[in-house]
Amino acid sequence: MKRTGEDARATTKVKIQFTPNAGLIPVTLGDDANRFAIVVEQLGGASLAQVEALAGGAHQAMFARGNVGGELIFRSSKSYASYHDTFAQFLTEYGRLNQQGSLVLTEGAITLTFASAILRGVQRLFDAHHSGAHMGIRYTFAISTIT
User: Is 116 helix (H, G, I), strand (E, B) or coil?
Assistant: First the structure.
């Protein structure tokens, strides 16, 4: 995660790993420490709330209905041996779509674990400022629990 101002001196390295339920082999999707740059674009959640008007009431009735969930969207990028290799790597990532598993995001001493995360989307990003062998991928994960 990039930081600016006074906080820039405190920048730590980010690492994200995904362990699909099928196969149980962890895959590193990004690792700042190994020149596999990560930018977390969105991390958020929401829950379902029922709001009902009450006849003659001064206020609406509100009920928490649970269903907590959200998304983690991030991109990672690195250089590959050739332009062709960027497409081969994208094909590998595309094959992970719809897989469910454990997603672990570590930044310094903080670790967030998203159990039962589902890979909902992958998008190939090309960085025109680098050689044709540099590629980024945007990942979108559906998340529910964070520990």
Answer: strand
pTM of the predicted model as reported, rounded to 2 decimal places: 0.81
Q: In degrees, to the nearest 5, what angle opens at C-alpha 52 toward C-alphas 50 and 56?
A: 160
In the chain, domain spans: 5-46+65-143
pLDDT in tens, 105-133: 999 899 999 999 999 999 998 765 556 68
CA distance 82 to 135: 10
Asked whether the beta carbons of 29 and 76 are under 8 A apart, the reply is yes
Class in CATH terms, 5-46+65-143: mainly beta
CB–CB of 96/45 below 8 Å? no
Residue with tokens 């962890």: 26
- 42 contacts 80 by C-beta, under 8 angstroms: no
Coil/strand/helix, residue 88:
helix
In the structure encoding, which two tokens stand for residue 72, read together?
């983690």
Q: What gap in Å lies between CA 82 and CA 92, rounded to an integer?
A: 16
